[in-house]
Amino acid sequence: MIALQRVRLPADVAAELVRLTARIPPGDNKTARQLWTRSRRARASIREHLAMMAAGRGYCMYCGDGLGSSVDHHEPVARNPLRAFDWLNHLLACDYCNSHHKRDRYPVDADGNALLLDPTVDDPLEHLFLVLSIGKYRALTEKGRQTIEVCGLNRPLLERGRAAAVHQVAALVTHWWFGDADVRRSALWTLRDQPHADVLHAMLRQARLPGARTIFRDDDLVTLLCNEELRDALVVQTGAQGTEPLGQ
Fold it and tell me: Which residues have C-beta within 8 Å of that of residue 162, sequence separation ≥ 6?
């Protein structure tokens, strides 16, 4: 999971979402679900704009592996029907994360605050630490722990994919450094496009930690990951962005 910047919806789309929300009686999740199902144009527009925000080819905003194929309500409609058409409540998810893991789960603390990371609001790397050698997440906070559990972020296939991605990123960074202009462009394109963008972000973050040389056991790789030219070329997002209210 990586930090993402939420884009602003076109005025006509935002207005349509407001009109649809006005048709939902407070607490009526049945009506909210029916309107959501029937509002194909609104759903298509939401899906289109979420894809603009997602990593690579539109990867799931939770696992970062599967292609995002559905719009997920971060706070479920069953819990808060009035957020069914709230642009700030929509994320792009793969069917596996949406249907088999998260579903309508939405843990909160004693004060009712969400304990599920929203990558358009939170910087996941402040709550999750990726153990690169095994592709496994460790929780740094209770919000991180709950997110790992709810989204199934440590399921075996994801761990294997992340562990493999570490080697792929290392190889691509090396190709970038030693390659000519064409090789460099290709390496950057692949780094941006491949799944598990969280691995790249974690490697770039961890390369600047005091114990980086112990983590990577490769001094040359640490040096390359700290290279400002590479980091600028990748336009690395190191935290959640966009504090201005967007959408509706």
Answer: 130, 132, 135, 136, 196, 198, 199
CB atoms within 10 A of CB 197: 23
d(CA 204, CA 32): 42
| Number of other CB atoms surrounding residue 204 within 10 Å | 19
For 235, the 3-state DSSP assignment is coil
Q: Are 152 and 100 in contact (CB under 8 A)?
A: yes
Cα(181)–Cα(245) distance, integer angstroms: 40
- Helix or strand holding residue 136 (H, E): strand 136-139
Listed in sequence order, the residues at least 6 apart from 104 whose beta carbon sits closer than 8 Å to its beta carbon are 76, 78, 79
240 — pLDDT class (breaks 50, 70, 90): very low
Please state the pTM of the whole predicted model: 0.88
- Would you state the pLDDT for residue 234? 85
The CA-based dihedral angle spanning residues 46, 236, 170, 138, taken in that order and rounded to the nearest 10 degrees: -70
How confident is the model over 171-217, as pLDDT tens digits?
Answer: 999 999 999 999 999 999 999 999 999 999 999 999 999 999 999 99
Q: Hey, what's the torsion of the CAs at 235, 237, 238, 243, to 10 degrees?
A: 130
Parallel, antiparallel, or unpaired for β 70-73 and 90-93? antiparallel
Is residue 100 very low, low, confident or very high in pLDDT (cuts 50, 70, 90)?
Answer: confident
